[in-house]
Amino acid sequence: MIKFYVNTPIQIPVNLMPLVSSADFVTHVTTVEYDTPNLELVWNFVNANGVQTQENVVVSETGNYEWVNLGNGMYGVAIPASGGDTINNDTVGFGWFSGVADGCLPWRGPIITFQSTRTSGTIIFSGDEPPEDADADIESEAIAGYTEVNALSLYRYARIIGINPVHFSGAGNIGIPDGRLLFPLSQPDGTFYQEESHHPRDNVSRQEINEAITDAESLVEDFLGSFVTPKWVRGEQVNPKHHFDPYIGIVERNIRNENVIYRPKWDNFISGGIRGSYLIAENVPVVYADPDEDGWNEVAIIEFDLEHAGTSLYEVQCFFPGYNGAQQYEIRPPLSKTKEDATVEMRFETWKMINPSIREEFPSNDQNALINLMEYGNIVDHVDIYRKFNSTVQDHATIFYESCGSSLDYIEQSGHARLVNPEINGIEIVPANYIEDEGWKKINTLGKIKYIKLNYYSGYTYRPTYGANYWDDLHPDLAKAIAYIATARLSRPLAGRAEVTALSQKLQMDLATTDRGGFRYTTNELVENPFGSLAGEVFAWRRLKHFQRKFRKYRN
What we know:
alpha+beta, Immunoglobulin-like, seven-stranded antiparallel β-sheet, six-stranded mixed β-sheet, 9 helices
């Protein structure tokens, strides 16, 4: 689908396929001009509320509605941002052209999405400002484009393993005005971490650690049957459950006349919905401070206004500027998040603010250069703030019914999902429509259900009321288990202090083998471990096999 931002002048295609002659139904018509006899062009538009309109557009040689011959039977028309006689690019929605002209068969153009510049990832918002109650007033349609990232951030991993965070950032030897070096390296390039695995260093790279964390998270989630932090599932197919009533026949309700219970693939169901995102503040300045007065500004402070009182600080996230809130460019974890009245303050360590463009530069050679944190441009001076949340006003499910008559297309209907039995992760899915200002309302079924596609938000949610808070919903036990499995499976050693090297070597020890002259018992715990026989994998197995029961204490 073609997409354009609103409030900008654009040129859009008139026809989806080349115009074809009405004489022989084969020849492409390449000579249509703005003044071709009987040229009629109709603009069809559906706004965010679902209201469809049509406007006749009179094209011209130049100006607001300039007719453009693109060649090979393809044509385009210019549309102004504002000031046009008929149509303007000033409204969020979907539009397409249809038309006729002498010598041509009737045609239509491609469907085009017109979206707000605040769109990021999944939600198209109408208007210039985010809705006051974003969960209730969104008038939008889901679009693709969301990429999941690891629940365990690289910096939280470094904290668990005990790696110096500055060296882990690829920095060190920070020279301050009085001549001292902060975070000195033990040798010229001995302890800082390379970014890519192809750089010629003996120790492991940040890229390899990130990939190991991805693999470890997948193993843990498969074992638990639940995401380690809440994530969105889109389009999970659910087969309907039918019951036989001797008086009615096959029905979608049980013998007690209750809605049947479904169990989604992933445990710890939270709510139906899809991922929502909107820009809260753009290009927010970063102020760097030196709270310990050692000559280096090691803390980044960001302040901005949050007008929507009901927004949780867990949903407010900070991103590197210019990436439209793409999840892999989130700056995390923060040192703190606080709110006073309408003002939010977020604090980060300076080494987390390294400009991502430095890490993404094409290598000129295989040498990984040390990042100078005192050099202008190496750390960002502005950030973007987004709200990332579960939008419950979107369709929780799409219900498909057997088609009528000779049509082979299924009949589709919106549905709502809710948790009804937490002990077995049981949910009910009912036909329903979302009505603005009223909420979800049940509607009648349209026949025999063939299958259902489910959208939902699911996973463990850990939000401590005291102690360290990483604002990522990841339970400490899960974070440590993932970090230990990832470390155990690394193919190269970690860099840094002797304690870090010793821990990594211990976690990578294979408990199913012995050294020459050694002796070790193989226990049932080791044999039954689904992760493997490395010490880090065994530690994770011991922590996780009782985690489901333990976690109930932390539900809130």
